[in-house]
């Protein structure tokens, strides 16, 4: 009985250690597009953009809008095949960017449905 209690105690302590040391954010996808990127967009608005793509595919950066004469945050995701989706500004009145990244270039379309304007974007790895 005493041996069983000791084994059970060891099992519980080990389980707690494994659980405490695990992190759901440890997953690293290593998208081949990670790094600094910049480019331009045109259409119903025009301007420049600059983003960072993390190893996990998270996208963050800023967009300069000629119409607004100001900067907007852009956040989104790119997957391992290069498919890209991000929002500049807010989801309610910002622009949605979609497209594709390749090894050193990216391109696609953007749309601001609230202002009923759209256009294209393109850029390069820095």
Molecular structure report:
With 126 residues, the chain is of the alpha+beta class. It has one domain (35-125): Lipocalin, CATH 2.40.128. The chain is built from 1 helix and 8 strands; from the N terminus they run αββββββββ. The protein has one helix at 2-21; strands at 35-43, 47-53, 58-65, 70-78, 83-88, 95-101, 105-112, 117-125. The protein has an 8-stranded antiparallel β-barrel with strand order 1-2-3-4-5-6-7-8. A hairpin with a 4-residue loop joins strand 3 (58-65) and strand 4 (70-78). The radius of gyration is 22 Å and the shape is globular. The N and C termini lie far apart (66 Å).
Short key terms for the protein model shown above:
Lipocalin, single chain, 126 residues, alpha+beta, 8-stranded antiparallel beta barrel
